[in-house]
Specification:
Oligomer: single chain
CATH superfamily of the largest domain: Dihydrodipicolinate Reductase, domain 2
Distance between the termini: 52 Å
Shape: globular
CATH architecture of the largest domain: 2-Layer Sandwich
CATH topology of the largest domain: Dihydrodipicolinate Reductase, domain 2
Number of strands: 14
Family: Belongs to the Gfo/Idh/MocA family.
Protein name: D-xylose 1-dehydrogenase (NADP(+), D-xylono-1,5-lactone-forming)
Catalytic activity: D-xylose + NADP(+) = D-xylono-1,5-lactone + NADPH + H(+)
Number of domains: 2
Largest sheet: 8 strands, mixed
Pfam families: GFO_IDH_MocA, GFO_IDH_MocA_C3
Strand content: 25-35%
Radius of gyration: 20 Å
Bound molecules: NADP nicotinamide-adenine-dinucleotide phosphate
EC number: 1.1.1.179
């Protein structure tokens, strides 16, 4: 491992599915790694759970295992906390980590509401730590290449429409009431879990800019609610120039591999992958010419791209990342709020809008 690249020591909060994918990916040997990642500590609801997690997902490594999250926040050997808890806990986990002076990478959706996101980012600003929402898809090389083709080279002319879907059969009937996919108090519902990716593709394909530079579209949205959570969401983004994004999520069916279609005045692009969060290829189809296919191979799942970017930023003394800046997280959270305002999904009182919409 070259000594020219930064080293980042991670404290992992929670031992669920996403944390397992994240630590596996960070432990891969990669010739093109931009940083050296160390899983320094793991915090879980129990030490036994933490030990079992480490043994299964990063065998041969020996992180410090804690039976609480607080011990990770106060471990001086930890540089950055990775938050892999259900949505409803993100705000408090982030605030607690920031209070101990830790940098934070927090899973999507960043928080339940835009108001919560503002609270976390204000705390980060005051403490001078790095904070980022772990919207890993934005860091895929495929996304960078696609955005260059669409917006800089205009290979399909002007973008007029984008369709994107993320649907998974979550088999909700089989899950207990405490599942994070079912319990509204944990931030359940398709919108924050998977709909956020459809929204992300729409935003990235319809506008070359992000964050405070981006254009704000009008939103028209509807949701199907069951037991207090959205099992389906459809949102339409309408831009001032008339272009539209038709963006959907569903908990009872499965999106086919071709999950996104970008339509322009001079052609169409179809994006493919095993999930809307993890694209593997796209095809550019001009109206009368040969289709051109772009394939993107990767090892593991691809969480190391966001982790590398975080490490490089922190080594450079930055507090936010230019691919996923704070203003973009806030913009997306505000759109998620608006979609729920129109669609009807509410989180429990006290966790939702301070205006008392719920
Ligand atoms: N980027 C992606 O592709 C991706 C994929 C899946 C999920 N996610 C995101 O990752 C986050 C977690 O999702 P997940 O699928 O990993 O969830 P999960 O498998 O249910 O794990 C969540 C973990 O959080 C901890 N936790 C603390 N309080 C909890 C409570 N009251 N109920 C349940 N768990 C609690 C538990 O760990 P301990 O017992 O060890 O404390 C649990 O194992 C969400 O924000 C989700 O949107 C991202």
């Amino acid at each position: 491992m070259s000594s020219q690249i930064p080293t980042l020591r991670w404290g992992i909060i929670a031992t669920g599915l996403i944390s397992s994918w994240f630590v596996q990916d960070l432990s891969l040997e990669r010739a093109d790694a931009k940083a050296h990642h160390i899983i320094q500590a793991i915090g879980s609801s129990s030490v036994e759970k933490g030990r079992a997690f480490a043994a299964k997902h990063i065998p041969g490594k020996s992180p410090t295992i804690y039976g609480s999250y607080d011990e990770v926040y106060s471990d001086r050997a930890v540089d950055i906390v990775y938050v892999g808890t259900p949505h409803a806990f993100h705000k408090q986990n982030c605030l607690d980590a920031i209070k101990q002076g830790k940098h934070v990478l927090c899973e999507k959706a960043f928080t339940l509401t835009a108001a919560e996101a503002r609270e976390v980012l204000d705390a980060a600003r005051k403490s001078g730590v790095f904070v980022m929402e772990a919207l890993w898809t934005r860091f895929f090389p495929l996304v960078r290449t696609l955005r260059a083709r669409v917006h800089d080279e205009k290979v399909i002319g002007d973008v007029r429409r984008v369709f994107c879907d993320f649907a998974m059969d979550m088999n909700l009937a089989s899950l207990g009431p405490d599942s994070r996919l079912k319990n509204p108090a944990l931030g359940a519902g398709t919108l924050l879990d998977i709909g956020i990716y459809s929204l992300t593709w729409g935003l990235l394909a319809l506008d070359p800019r992000i964050g405070s530079q981006a254009e704000t579209p009008k939103i028209v949205a509807t949701q199907s609610l069951e037991d207090g959570i959205d099992v389906a969401t459809s949102a339409i983004l309408v831009y001032p120039n008339g272009s539209q994004g038709i963006l959907t999520s569903h908990a009872g069916v499965k999106t086919p591999p071709a999950f996104c279609r970008i339509e322009g005045t001079q052609g169409t692009i179809v994006v493919e992958g095993w999930a809307t969060s993890a694209p593997t290829a796209f095809v550019v189809q001009p109206p009368n010419g040969e289709a051109e296919r772009y394939e993107f191979a990767r090892v593991g799942r691809g969480f190391y791209w966001e982790a590398d970017a975080v490490a490089v930023d922190i080594a450079a003394g930055k507090c936010e990342n230019e691919t996923m800046p704070w203003t973009e997280t806030l913009r997306v959270m505000e759109m998620l709020d608006e979609i729920r305002r129109q669609g009807g999904a509410r989180f429990p009182p006290g966790q939702d809008w301070e205006s008392g919409v719920n």
